Backbone:
């Protein structure tokens, strides 16, 4: 049975960045030059989710991230140049997400072993009674056979629960709990919102887009707003500005999520660049809104007698929230392994020496725009340094 110096559970953004950085650091400072590294990845190939990020372009960081420069330097070191769009989002220069995963895999595959199709099931710490150094036993399934590997140090980089079609089904949370860690309440975020509004037939508006401002209110008070492209879906709204509301739609302690939903509403301004007066001076909202969307409010305006003011509704469309799209549609997880149980400088567990965490598995999440991948690269790189400094 094989024993490695370091096993990385999960070959996604954080796991690959950690491995690449670990190998690079070893080369640079000569420490632990002979350390053996193994990545255990559930999918048939590593970096599968990376390939789907940013609509296939991989929005890998954002100018607002304090750790952005280090991320860009890291990518340059593995051959990936980047460019910044007008909103401060960074992409690989080639605009190809799969180039990012290829560069990461190339950087690690020469010096680390990558076992694909390996689903980690259990991680346990073996501590001999005689006081000698313990190690980790990692048990998993590969091609329907039980496999075991051993390691001095383990990095858990198995992601969260968002996008289970990419391999992330929350396995890391179960394992972290068995190792004594607290996992805070998790729910899907950065996803579409199901809504209802008087007089609006969402199914007929499916596919319609509009530039707008969305304001989330809780118990009648605004708590967060965002502006951008709103996309109508068959049962609600979607788009980056809508995604960014979802981390704020949460239940209080012991409150049922369905009950909490009733306290939230979304107020949409579908013409933020125009005043109500300007709208009223037009014959139709068409030209500011697309034809299908304009027709909804033009009809209401014409039928003003029914007491519905179409123009006022363009500026103030109140939506009841009926649900949040599930894990399959979500781009990130809210919640995860409790941060106060992790040394955030080294990413080492404060409870289990030699155990490290990186990426979405921890209770850290950001809005759309490169913040979640930044968290993955940054914590992966920190963990690599922490492992080296902890003398492997
Ligand atoms: C469609 C989509 C688009 C996105 N776009 C962006 C974007 O443009 N910018 C941005 O910042 N963020 C984006 N995100 C979020 C971002 O991809 C994640 O936050 C990030 O990938 C998390 O990195 P990670 O390494 O923690 O997890 P992941 O990248 O999810 O990797 C975890 C890996 O662990 C493996 N694994 C899980 N369980 C096991 C197990 N039991 N055994 C072995 N392996 C296991 C998984 O197969 C996976 O490969 C997007 C997410 C999605 C779903």
Residues:
């Amino acid at each position: 049975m094989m024993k490695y110096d370091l096993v990385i559970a999960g070959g996604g953004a954080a796991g690959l960045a950690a491995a690449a950085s670990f190998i690079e650091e070893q080369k640079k400072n000569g420490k632990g030059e002979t350390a053996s590294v193994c990545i255990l990845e559930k999918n048939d190939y590593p970096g599968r989710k990376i390939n789907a990020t940013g609509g296939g372009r991989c929005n890998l960081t954002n100018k607002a991230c304090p750790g952005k420069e280090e991320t860009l330097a890291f990518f340059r070191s593995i051959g990936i140049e980047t460019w910044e769009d007008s909103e401060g989002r960074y992409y690989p220069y080639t605009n190809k997400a799969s180039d990012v995963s290829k560069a990461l895999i190339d950087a690690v595959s020469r010096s680390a072993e990558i076992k694909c199709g390996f689903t980690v099931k259990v991680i346990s710490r073996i501590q001999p009674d005689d006081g000698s150094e313990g190690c980790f036993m990692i048990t998993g399934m590969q091609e329907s056979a039980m496999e075991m590997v051993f390691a001095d140090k383990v990095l858990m980089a198995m992601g969260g629960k968002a996008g289970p079609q990419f391999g992330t089904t929350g396995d890391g949370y179960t394992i972290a709990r068995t190792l004594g860690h607290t996992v805070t309440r998790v729910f899907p975020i950065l996803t579409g919102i199901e809504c209802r509004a008087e007089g609006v037939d969402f199914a007929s508006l499916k596919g319609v887009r509009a530039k707008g401002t969305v304001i989330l209110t809780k118990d009648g008070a605004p708590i967060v707003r965002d502006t951008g492209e709103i996309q109508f879906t068959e049962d609600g709204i979607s788009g980056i500005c809508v995604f960014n509301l979802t981390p704020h739609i949460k239940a209080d302690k012991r409150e049922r999520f369905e009950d909490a939903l009733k306290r939230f509403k979304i107020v949409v301004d579908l013409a933020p660049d125009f005043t109500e007066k300007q709208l009223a001076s037009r014959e139709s909202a068409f030209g500011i809104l697309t034809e299908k969307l304009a027709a909804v409010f033009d009809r209401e305006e014409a039928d003003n007698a029914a007491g519905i003011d179409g123009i006022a509704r363009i500026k103030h469309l109140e939506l009841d929230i009926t649900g949040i799209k599930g894990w399959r549609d979500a781009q990130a997880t809210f919640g995860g392994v409790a941060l106060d149980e992790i040394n955030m400088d080294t990413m080492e567990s404060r409870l289990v020496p030699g155990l490290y965490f990186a990426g979405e598995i921890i209770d850290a999440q950001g809005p759309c725009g490169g913040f979640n991948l930044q968290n993955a690269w940054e914590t992966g790189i920190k963990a690599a340094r922490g492992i080296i400094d902890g003398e492997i």
Observations:
- The mean pLDDT is 94.
- Residues 159 and 363 are 11 Å apart (CA to CA).
- The first strand starts at residue 3 and ends at 9.
